[in-house]
Structures are given as structure tokens and as C-alpha cells.
Amino acid sequence: MLSSLPADSYTAQRPGIDPRHPAGDMEATRPHILAATDGSLFADAALRMAAALADRDGGLVEVETVMETPPRTLGAREVGADIARAASERGCELITLGLSEHDAFDRALGRETALQVARYAHVPVLAVDAGATTLPKRVMVAAELGGASLHTARAALHLLGREGTIHLVHVEPRIPVPFAGSRVHDVPAPNEMHPPFDVLLRDLVAPRTVRIECTRLFGDPVSEMLRFAGEEGIELIAAGTRRRAPLLKTVLGGIATKLFRRARCSVLLVPST
């Protein structure tokens, strides 16, 4: 008999502190954004988000139109590589594209294409939910509690801007205990008993108007994070990716990929430095 308890959580809260720059510890630069579009309604959300970010921070938006011309049919990998290459050649610091609920065969851009962009890009990729009309105010960061998580959190904080709430969420796997008898056990993995949120909080500088909350959950990482996102009204999920040398493309972990495919809100994929 295998038994386990529902996931539990605790939350530590810390108000933001005064930064030297309006968006926290990110440099106060004017963002250079590449907005990819295929002319669909889903892509319009990416254009709106890019314009809102540029308007807020005094940045520049360049539009990359992706269209399929018969008889040539581009695959997701080719389109993704082309968009990432365009962003690199133009010196863009962020790529935005629309996020549809399901891929359509007659669209040049879709979820799988967005994943391919993230695999080839050296900059964060923001896939914008079609229903998003304003910049996000409630953001969740999938925290692995390392340097990559700090980089991801900083990128998410930069999108959040001067006010809102950022949730740093870490999920520990549950270990079901066999032959537990009538008692129900739920034992966290030994090396994950006390996640060091203080290290992440120490190095993440945010404006006083940004609230930072740290939450530990137990269970399947993807399921628990998506459940948390739904219950908390999260508008943007940020997850980190990693680059494996000497390959040029980024390796998307299973958690980042599954979050991206199943999320019902905008998703930010941030490559490691």
C-alpha cells in the first residue's frame, strides 16, 4: 500500500526594498524587443505586450513577421531558429510572441514554435497569453534555489516593473512510504527539507512597491505549480532554461517544457547566463 498526503505549503513574506533603479536590480536600460507575429489574433497579444514594455521603459520594438509562402512549409524548428537569429543580429534583449491554447496547422507560430525559439535564443522569450491586455502584476517564478533561479527571478521582476507581487515557488518531491499501515506519511526528499530562500531574497533587490512571497509546496512540481498559479491568479510564469556547451541551443528541462505546454497564462523562459 502506498499512501501520501496532499501537498502542503508555507509562505514567507518580505516587502521590497528601495533599489537604485525603478525595476530593482536590473539595469535601467531601454529595452530592445523583437516582437514576432504571423498576423493572427494570438500574435496581437505579443505586440501589445512589447509595446507596453517599450512605452513604460522608453524602449524600442522591432517587428518580425513570420509567414509561410506556399509551396514552402516551415517547420517549428526552422521558424524558431530564424526568429532567434533575427533577435541576435539586431541585438534584442527580449523576444515576444503570442501563445495560443492549441497549435493550429495553418499558423506559422504556435506553442511548439515558441519552444524552439527558446531553445535557440540567447535572450528571454516571453510567450504572451492571448487574453493578456496589460503588463502582469502577479508573477510566479519556478525556483530551483540556485544561480539560475536568481537570474530567472530578476528577469521576471524586470517585466513586473515597479509594482505587483512576485511568488518564488519551490516544489519538493513527495516520497510515499510503502507498508505504512493505517498511518499516512508524506516525507520530503532528504536534501530538500529547508530550501534556502534567504539566499535568493538576499540577492534579489526589488522596489518597495513590489511584494515578494516565498512558497514551498510538496508533490509533482508541474502539477503543484500550475495549481498554485490557478489559485493565486498568476498572470505570468517564469522558468529557467540551461545552455549546454558546446551546443548552440538551449536545453529545456522537463519542468520548464511541461509548464510551458500546460500553462493557461503567459510564460517567460529565461536562459541561464
Shape verdict:
globular
**Number of continuous helical runs:** 7
Number of domains: 1
C-alpha Rg (nearest Å) = 19 Å
- Beta-strand content bin: 25-35%
Give the rounded overall mean pLDDT. 77
Count of strand segments: 15
DSSP helix fraction: 25-40%
Structural class: alpha/beta
Biggest pleated sheet = 11 strands, mixed
Oligomer: single chain
Unreliable residue stretches? 1-8, 15-27, 103-108, 181-188, 190-194, 245-251
CATH topology: Rossmann fold
CATH architecture title: 3-Layer(aba) Sandwich
Sequence of secondary-structure elements: EEEHEHEHEEHEEEEHEHEEHE
Could you give the distance between the termini?
Answer: 45 Å
Q: What's the CATH class label?
A: Alpha Beta
Helix-strand layout with pairing:
Layout: E1 2-3, E2 9-15, E3 32-37, H1 41-57, E4 60-65, H2 76-89, E5 94-99, H3 111-120, E6 125-129, E7 138-142, H4 147-160, E8 164-172, E9 174-175, E10 177-178, E11 187-188, H5 197-203, E12 210-218, H6 221-232, E13 236-243, E14 250-251, H7 254-262, E15 266-271
